[in-house]
Amino acid sequence: MASHSLDDLRRVIRRIETPRPTRPAARPIEEVLGGELVDTGEGPLLVVRREFPLAYRHGRQAIGAAFEAPLGLLSAVSRLESPVGDARRLVFLDAETTGLAGGTGTYAFLVGAAWLEDDRLVLAQHFMRDFDEEPALLAALAPARRWYLWGAAVAALAATWAWLDVAQVRVPEAYTLPAAAVALAAGAALRRGRTRPSSWLAFGPGLALALLPSLGLAIDRGGVARPLLLTGGALLVVLAGAGARLQAPLVLGAGTLVVLGLDAALPVAAQLPRWVTIGAAGLLLLWLGATAERRLARLRELREQFQALEPR
After folding, report:
1. Are the beta carbons of 67 and 87 closer than 8 angstroms?
2. What is the rounded CA–CA span in Å between residue 63 and residue 66?
């Protein structure tokens, strides 16, 4: 009995000591699944994209049959607050998680989305290979969430305009400033992304919408309150642009201040005697001519500093 046990032990030892053939390295999962690693800005993420014609049959039904279902049925299935008006605009979502109960420790490791593009169904599956890729998964899904966010912002803006019209609010800034705020928020979101457009593209439209209509009204209608408030707003824009080293706020804010200053100074200058204005203009031209070379050098320096404002 003891001899039999020793023989068994020797066989086990020999099996352990016998070198095993090395296994071939496993193929990358993106090759196995036919996907690709996408840089999301928060790390790589495996994305598998497929396209299917509407005549493609999944089981007994063609894919296109899902979009021919009654709109009432699609509305009930999608659980939308408003009825489905066009089945072709639906987005189909599915998620696979690490647990069924939910709660702490449960991860959505696979999120799939399908939608129509022309005459085909596009399926995109986002696969989290490890737990530390959760930020990449969320970043990959962020564009879809941003579209919903900006759609809601535009709807809120339209509702605000409708309410102001019903309340018979006739102050133009009540309509332009909310729209400018939405445009500036969109520009700030773009600047936080990977593309980082220039300040002219990101903030130029919003700042122009906030400043230019009020500037035109201040020049046309005069008054005290609007030019004073616009001066304070333009000054804040200039300070913000200088602090963030951005061209668009500096130029648009400073331009607004210059136009407001000229509009305030020209009526005063028109009331002065002619010899005073002519003499002041002559002295200014003499001073510019005497310091022309130094001024040109200073302008070149300012141009270089201005071009270096935009951080990348």
Report:
1. yes
2. 6
Name beta bridge partners: 38. Answer: 45
Structurally, how many domains does the chain consist of?
2
Q: State how far the alpha carbon of 84 is from the alpha carbons of 90, 92, 149, 188, in Å.
A: 8, 13, 19, 33
Residue 113 placed within a domain: yes
Domain co-membership, 33 together with 137: yes
- In-domain check, residue 70: yes
Residue found under tokens 């951080």: 311
3 occurs within a structural domain: no
Question: How many Å apart are CA 207 and CA 183, to the nearest integer?
Answer: 8
Question: What are residue 39's DSSP bridge partners?
Answer: 44
Which CA distances in Å does 302 have to 120, 172, 187, 307?
A: 55, 36, 26, 9
Decide: 187 and 205 in contact? Cβ < 8 Å: yes
Whether residue 51 contacts residue 35, with contact meaning beta carbons closer than 8 Å, is answered with no
Tens digits of residue pLDDT in 139-181: 887 766 555 556 556 767 777 777 888 888 888 888 899 888 8
138 with 177, same domain: the answer is no
Q: At 310, which amino acid appears?
A: E
Which residue, chain included where needed, has tokens 């002295």?
283
Q: Are 282 and 253 in contact (CB under 8 A)?
A: no
Do the beta carbons of residue 234 and residue 261 sit within 8 Å? no
Residue 60's pLDDT is 83
Closest CA relative to residue 173, chosen from 221, 209, 202, 223: 209
Question: What residues contact 43, with CB distance under 8 A and at least 6 apart?
Answer: 132, 133, 135, 136, 139
Query: Whose CA is closest to 56, among 10, 116, 112?
Result: 116
Asked if residue 231 is part of any domain, the answer here is: yes
Whether the model clears a pTM of 0.85, i.e. scores above it, the answer is no
Give, for 49, the enclosing helix (H) or strand (E): strand 44-53
Average the pLDDT over 280-301 and give the result.
Answer: 66
User: Six-digit token pair at 244?
Assistant: 């963030």
